[in-house]
Request: fold
Amino acid sequence: MKSMMLVVALLMGTAGQAQTIVYTAARMLDVASGQMIEQPVIVAENGRITGVGRQGQLAVPDGRRVDLGNVTLLPGLIDMHVHLSSDPTLSGMQALRYPASFWTAIGVAMAGKTLAAGFTTVRNVGSANFDDVGLKLAIERGSVPGPRIVPATYAIGATGGHCDNNALPAEYGYDRRGIADGPEALRAKVRELHKYGAEVIKFCATGGVLSLGTSVGAQQLSLAEMTALVEEAHMLGLKVAAHAHGTAGIKTAIRAGVDTVEHASFADAEAIDLAKKAGTWFSMDIYNDDYILAEGAKNGLDEQNLAKEREVGLRQRQAFQAAWRAGVKMVFGSDAGVYPHGDNARQFAKMVEWGMTPIDAIRAATIKAAEALGREGDVGQIAPGRMADMIGVAGDPSRDVASLRDVKIVIKGGVLMKDAR
Ligand code: ARG
Reply:
């Protein structure tokens, strides 16, 4: 039923965009003020919002009227950390049995699930085969349903690091496209990935949980290397996301000038202070731990990965709480792909449990994420000038973020992509 809706929406896609649409609904959450607006009306022209107000108060132009009924509208959600072409149920060594084309196909399916879950924009921070670039193009032309994608293409990293694949012996040549060592090679790698479609640069500053043979706390690139990479990316107008769990790697990445620190698990008081002073965003995937510990073994993860997760999970949540309390800027990044796509919104409850108010958690996935992307003119708010990306849920998500797990309406660029009322 839901997928039928997506097909219908796709077929109507272009026709739906080239007109004025006047949307009404029972309520709208204004994420900027935190206010609930009763009986809102939103006007969209050619996929962008041109007017927002209260029914009867805002003068609306002629156009197609779409009443979305008894839902609360809010901006389409933004997930700053996903891997669309990963499937958590195929983890560990078994993943190596599938060709690149398989993962591209997985990406198509997961893009649909992500959109249906209310995420209208995602940053895809690492995939092989440039499949996020192709996926983005196919979604943009309306060939397949999916969110707006900011693709990183390959995650860049040192030989043997978390962004490398260390599962196979030397004689099995593995795709090393994301690997670079030394400042000059890292600069060249940024240029190469940018040439083939990267719109954000992701790199691994430290070891990770789900890689083999890496120490999660260990730094994996020097300050000189990170600085060169960041300088090059910024020169090209790209933002930089650093995967960093370990304390030294987090600090070095911040000093090198990265825009977002992903995971930030072992951030200590000094790292938090550095982030605050530099205006660096933290994107912390604090739901993951529950899923990995419950399902990881069954999904094929190695015991060394599970052991690392047990080391990281609680520490990361404590760091999240401390960073938020201290005033570090934060965005919503789930690392979906490590847990099932479409369940992205499960993380909201964790963010509330660990210190955010519901509206702060929602802002992290809307206005704040848009700001961190440098796309505040485009996405993240139901406001004139921005894309008509809106979702509808039952109830009041600013009281209970659990309502975000059951998205009834998805509109992307003025096109109704899902109607499950
Ligand atoms: N991709 C991340 C890594 O392998 C996932 C970390 C998940 N664990 C967590 N507690 N956030 O390092």
Summary: Residues 4-75+380-419 form a domain with the Urease, subunit C; domain 1 fold (CATH 2.30.40.10).
